[in-house]
Amino acid sequence: MTLNNAMRVSATGLSAERFRMDVISSNIANANSMKVDGTDPYRARRVVLQGDEDGVRIQSVEPDQSAFRREAEPGSPYADAEGFVTYSNVEPIIEMVDMMGASRAYEANITAFNSARTMIQAALNIGRI
After folding, report:
1. Does 2 score more than 90 pLDDT?
2. DSSP 83
3. Which of 17, 59, 100, 101 is deepest in the core (most CB within 10 A)?
4. DSSP code string of 25-46
């Protein structure tokens, strides 16, 4: 692998992790949505990444199929006949852990990119001596 390839792979990783952080942010922003007028609440989304020799690419964004959260709130106008309100299946703690992982992966890609850039600059300086 050449240094230019290393920089390209790091750049694809940066782009993929940035997209992953955007999806996680959307999940967190919609964590308290609820079922209204028969419309299901927001369903958390998960980013599926795939790596190959050219870097990382976003394979798909899939809805999390886990059950929605139901809470007993008999006085709520959004409660069903049993007195339960159906909320999104977003788990904020899990989303924050995923966000930390994406952030760390983003930082690792920045470090790898900068290392390759520094090596290229050092190689160019060898020829100047």
Report:
1. no
2. S
3. 17
4. HHHHHTTT-B-BTTBPPP--EE
pLDDT > 80? residue 129: no
The string of pLDDT tens digits covering residues 79-127 is 999 999 999 999 999 999 999 999 999 999 999 999 999 998 888 888 7
Burial of 56 (C-beta count, 10 Å sphere; 0-12/13-18/19+): buried
Helix (H) or strand (E) holding 17: helix 3-29
Under 8 Å between Cβ of 73 and 46: no
Ordered by start, the domain boundaries in the chain are 3-126
Q: Which residues contact 122 (CB under 8 A, 6 or more apart)?
A: none
How far apart CA 68 and CA 87 sit, in angstroms, is 6
